[in-house]
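Thread amino acids onto this structure.
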């Protein structure tokens, strides 16, 4: 345990020694790589814990014929809505604009109206964003790359 603390302190010191511009570049690169990994995981329809998303509910009998051909969150995972940014203090991957509300409903399993005149529906929890072991490996790889150069 003390070995990890010493390692963390050394990494903190190395990051602190970087100029603010270099820290911002590092954070931006980390955010972009994390966004790419989050997009891939959303495409696979898997939570950060590795569990598959809860499937859509069955459509009512009087609804349109056929099946829904598009997977869930296809547009939501695009770079237009899933933004990655970095500052000299942090790296952020977030949903922006109007889709932020919809992403929040699915992330936490809240109640919402699918359309203006529809009744409220309880959505199952489908965590879209979150960190897993592979995300931590991405951060470590970027830190090692920046420190070694």
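Threaded sequence (149 positions):
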């Amino acid at each position: 345990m003390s070995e990890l603390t010493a390692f963390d302190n050394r990494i903190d010191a190395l990051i602190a020694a970087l100029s603010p511009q270099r820290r911002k570049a590092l954070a931006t690169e980390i955010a972009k790589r994390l966004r790419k990994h989050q997009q891939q995981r959303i495409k696979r329809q898997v939570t950060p814990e590795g569990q598959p998303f809860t499937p859509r509910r069955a459509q009512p009998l009087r609804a349109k014929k056929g099946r829904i051909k598009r997977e869930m969150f296809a547009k939501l995972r695009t770079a237009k809505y899933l933004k990655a940014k970095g500052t000299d203090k942090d790296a952020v991957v977030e949903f922006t604009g109007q889709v932020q509300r919809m992403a929040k409903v699915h992330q936490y399993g809240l109640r919402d109206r699918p359309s203006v005149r529809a009744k409220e529906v309880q959505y199952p929890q489908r965590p879209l964003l979150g960190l897993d072991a592979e995300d931590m490996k991405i951060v470590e790889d970027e830190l090692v790359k920046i420190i070694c150069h």
